[in-house]
Amino acid sequence: MTTERTVRGLALELSGAIEQDHHGFPSFRVNGRIFATLPRPDRLRAMLDEPGIRTAAARHPEICREYYWGKRLACIEIDLTAADAELVRDLLTDAWEYQAHR
After folding, report:
1. How would you classify the pairing of strands 43-46 and 33-40?
2. 27, 46, 69, 102: which has the highest count of C-beta atoms within 10 A?
């Protein structure tokens, strides 16, 4: 299990990362782009590229699922009650890298 507090610490340790409100819940941004959101204390959404989303869902089907906005594959949703901090750190770092270099 990874707590909301741990997620916040992991996200904000990434270079240039800031936290901002996003429709009433926390979002983490780099260079003005969202790389992750916490829509609920037990759910994290990480904005990876499409191959990253599909890989995470395939490797960790009990923890990660593809998340769609309409018909568009938008991010990976992580069940924080099942995810350990190492996996969360890896996915946050991947999302940060993807968004920081866009």
Report:
1. antiparallel
2. 46
- Parse the chain into domains and list their residue ranges: 4-100
* pLDDT interval class at 102 (50, 70, 90): confident
Question: Sheet containing 43-46: which strands, arranged edge to edge?
Answer: 18-22, 25-30, 33-40, 43-46, 72-79, 64-69
Question: Integer distance in angstroms from the first to the last C-alpha of the chain?
Answer: 31
> What is the 8-class DSSP label of residue 26?
E
Residue that has been written with the tokens 């997620």 in this structure: 7
- Residue 5 phi/psi, 5-degree rounding, is -60, -45
CATH number of 4-100: 3.90.1150.30
Question: By the 8 A CB rule, do 86 and 4 touch?
Answer: no
Condensed to tens digits (0 to 9), the pLDDT of residues 32-87 reads 999 999 999 999 999 999 999 999 999 999 999 999 999 999 999 999 999 999 99
